[in-house]
Write a structure and sequence with these properties.
alpha+beta; 4-stranded antiparallel beta sheet
């Protein structure tokens, strides 16, 4: 039977190349719209930073104007005062000199928010990786369980057929025939339920990664955990993109305080004009420069209120970042404990499979010698297959747990391209 199972796997693998977790994740990166959307958000943040940079640079404009006015004669004058048609052509430049340092704080704030958008993009890849991990290992576990059920069904049906033929010649009791028949129906119902769950999981995996439902899955993590100490994972938590994004937003909020308080400080501007054409008595004056100082005296308390609001926003962001960091550390501890428990479970189940296999072989041998009945043989086989299914499920859960732990500690393939 084991040879038949291996042959089935070989034939199935020959029809399609098995997909690994890394291949599934790479497919998801190119397929999911959320990743492309996060890139557009980074582009928007970059544009806002460019707009903030423009606030500290001069504005240069070419201005052309034409004025037509009523002809007016001064008393005793023989000609009109000023021309009826007046055209002005000038190049205007304005340079903000001092805005209470708000312009530079705004520029730094825009840089912090751009960094936060980049971290959000990286975190979107991390979350997508976790979605792929869940779907991948769930599907892999379900497909391996189906192989075990098919193996058990095959043996049960053969034994039922054998007992039916033996019953016709009076060598087997009717109760022994009914037991494998009932077990066959139970296993078929269980297989139908599991196949439905597998199809649903594969549909989700195909949606995420584009891997067709008929493509076999394989992964090296099913065989070993490769677990390190929890302290090593916790040391790397701060590098997680969601935490770095929270820190960047807190930094941006702190710059908002400087922007708000700048409303108390004076404004200094320089403006200059160069005239290509200028009407009236100043026609021969080609340029002028103006320096202006605006000192705010009273604005109804709006600046003070804005400063308090900005300070409260900064404290809120600081608290959010602190809580996110503590939650991440707790997540790492919990995931590490879960994987450790799964590692112990796998070891126990490996012993269980070994014991169940030995018991089944002994039951088969005793059945051939006529000292054991068929029901006990089927019960032993059912126990063996159940142990194998539990082992494969625990291995898949352990592999998924390791992948989640790596992602929680800022490790894994989702970092590629960050």
């Amino acid at each position: 039977m084991m040879m038949l199972r291996a042959l089935m796997l070989l034939v199935f693998a020959s029809t399609a190349t098995a997909a690994s977790l890394d291949e599934a994740y790479r497919g998801a990166l190119t397929r999911m719209e959320s990743i492309a959307s996060s890139r557009e958000l980074v582009t928007q943040a970059d544009a806002r930073q460019g707009r903030a940079r423009g606030s500290v640079l001069p504005n240069v404009n070419f201005i052309a104007s034409h004025q037509r006015q009523e002809e007016y004669l001064l008393p005793g004058a023989t000609s009109a005062f000023g021309k009826v048609d007046q055209t002005t052509l000038r190049l205007n430049a304005t340079q903000p000199v001092f805005r209470g340092l708000a312009e530079y704080a705004t520029l730094r704030q825009a840089g912090d928010l751009k960094q936060a958008s980049l971290e959000d993009q990286s975190n979107m890849r991390r979350l997508l990786y976790l979605d792929v991990v869940t779907a991948f290992y769930t599907a892999l576990s379900q497909e391996q369980e189906l192989l075990h059920l098919d193996e058990l069904l095959d043996v049960t049906k053969k034994r039922a057929a054998d007992l039916e033929s033996r019953s016709r010649i009076g060598r087997t009791r009717p109760s022994e025939v009914a037991a494998p028949t009932a077990q066959t129906h139970r296993l078929e119902a269980e297989r139908a339920e599991l196949a439905g769950l597998r199809d649903s999981t594969r549909a989700q995996l195909e949606f995420l990664t584009g891997i067709a439902s008929g493509t076999p899955l394989q992964d090296a993590l099913m065989g070993t955990a490769g677990l390190k100490g929890v302290e090593e994972y916790q040391r790397e938590v701060a590098a997680r993109p969601d935490l770095k994004g929270a820190v960047a937003r807190a930094s941006a909020a702190s710059e908002g305080i400087t922007v708000a308080r700048a409303g108390h400080l004076p404004l200094i501007d320089l403006a200059g004009n160069y005239y290509f054409k200028r009407p009236g008595v100043l026609t021969n004056v080609n340029w002028d420069v103006t320096a202006s100082l605006t000192f705010p005296l009273f604005q109804g308390g709006a600046v003070m209120a804005s400063s308090k609001e900005a300070a409260a926003a900064w404290r809120s962001q600081e608290l959010t970042a602190s809580q996110a960091h503590r939650q991440a550390e707790m997540e790492v501890r919990q995931l590490h404990a879960t994987v450790m428990a799964l590692e112990n479970q796998v070891k126990s189940l490996e012993l269980s499979v070994a014991s169940a296999s030995a018991a089944y072989k002994a039951q088969v041998q005793e059945y051939r010698l006529g000292i054991e009945n068929n029901i006990n043989v089927l019960t032993a086989l059912d126990a063996l297959v159940t142990a194998r299914r539990s082992l494969d499920r625990a291995r898949a859960n352990r592999a998924a747990g390791v992948a989640r732990l790596e992602a929680a500690a800022s490790r894994g393939p989702w970092l590629e391209g960050a």
